[in-house]
Specification:
This protein has one domain (8-81). It contains three helices and no strands. It has helices at residues 8-32, 41-58, 67-81. Helix 1 (8-32) packs across helix 2 (41-58) and helix 2 (41-58) packs antiparallel against helix 3. The N and C termini lie far apart (37 Å).
Length: 88
C-alpha cells in the first residue's frame, strides 16, 4: 500500500474502507439479530478479512488441503470469531 502513489493510493484506500465497512455491517447485523456475540465488530471484521487475505500467502492447488476443505474450515473459523450462536 505504501508504494502506491496518488490517485491510485486514494482509490485503493477508499475501496478497502468500503469492503471493511461491509464486513462490519454484516457483523453488526448478525449481532442485532442475535446470531453473533462480539465485543468489537471492527476487530472481528478485521480478523475475518485477515483470514481471507492470508490464504493467498500460503495456498497452493497441489497442497495438503483442497479448496473446498479450506473454505469450510475458514467459514467455521469466521463464525467462531463472530461468536455465532449454534441456533443462528
Amino acid at each position: 500500500m505504501r508504494s502506491l502513489v496518488e490517485p491510485r493510493r486514494g482509490r485503493v484506500l477508499a475501496l478497502r474502507a468500503e469492503y471493511e465497512a461491509g464486513f462490519r455491517g454484516i457483523v453488526n447485523a448478525g449481532v442485532a439479530e442475535g446470531c453473533f456475540k462480539v465485543a468489537s465488530a471492527r476487530l472481528v471484521s478485521y480478523a475475518i478479512l485477515d483470514l481471507g487475505m492470508g490464504v493467498a500467502a500460503w495456498y497452493r492447488e497441489d497442497g495438503e488441503l483442497t479448496e473446498d476443505a479450506i473454505v469450510w474450515q475458514y467459514s467455521d473459523f469466521a463464525l467462531r470469531l463472530a461468536g455465532a450462536s449454534p441456533e443462528g
